[in-house]
Design goal:
- The protein is of the alpha+beta class.
- It folds into 2 domains: 97 residues, no CATH class; 81 residues, no CATH class.
- The protein has 3 helices and 6 strands; from the N terminus they run αααββββββ.
- It has a 4-stranded antiparallel beta sheet with strand order 3-4-5-6, covered by helices on one side.
- The longest helix is centred in the N-terminal third of the chain and has 30 residues.
- It is elongated, with a radius of gyration of 26 Å.
- The mean pLDDT is 86.
Length: 195
């Protein structure tokens, strides 16, 4: 076997190992992830560096300014556990933009004015990591020679180095002729690099 062949086989074996580790990690994380719903509000876990920080009492304002509870529950469709508990109040709201990494969120309270706020910080992505981005597609249409063409495929990105994502893809294409020429088809697979 030539050196070039050995390098290609070695690279393919390395990518297969990365894909296997990524698949096992993605399965384990999905299996043990706390339930998060996109259709209702849920409590989120605290920032792990803050969990062990001591809680202290500070002198506060005579009153705290909150968002009108009846209106915010109605407009944002907040959950029943929040709406029915008089001790739970909303002091601030915010919208966080989508991001591939983690976003830390801190609720603040000005002890002079009694007004709350929210500050956020997106944590930078690590140099490398495992991801689990999957895509399937099916396309169809007519060619200029009046043949029906159908293409289907998929892509799985399983590793990330900086902003570059690495994975694999597969695609199959078939042409169906209306004449006696029959059908033709082909398939292709390879490495996908997205940046």
């Amino acid at each position: 076997m030539s050196l070039k062949s050995k390098l290609i086989v070695g690279l393919l074996m390395f990518l297969m190992l990365l894909a296997t580790v990524s698949a096992i990690r993605a399965w384990y994380i999905e299996r043990n992830k706390p339930p998060v719903s996109q259709i209702e509000y849920v409590k989120v876990p605290e920032i792990k560096e803050v969990i062990k920080v001591k809680r202290v009492e500070v002198p506060g304002p005579e009153r705290i300014v909150t968002v009108e509870k009846i209106k915010i529950v109605e407009k944002l469709k907040l959950p029943e556990w929040f709406a029915t508990n008089a001790d739970e109040q909303a002091i601030a709201t915010g919208e966080v933009q989508p991001y591939e990494g983690k976003t830390n969120v801190v609720a603040t309270l000005n002890t002079k004015t009694g007004v709350g706020g929210i500050i956020v910080k997106q944590e930078p992505l690590s140099l490398a990591g495992f991801i689990n981005d999957k895509e399937l597609y099916l396309k169809g249409g007519y060619t200029t020679s009046r043949e029906i063409e159908v293409t289907g495929g998929g892509r799985w990105l399983f590793a990330r180095v900086g902003k570059i994502k690495i994975g694999g893809y597969v695609e199959a294409k078939g042409q169906f002729a209306s004449s006696d020429n029959g059908t033709t088809g082909h398939a292709v697979a390879g490495i996908a690099i997205v940046y």
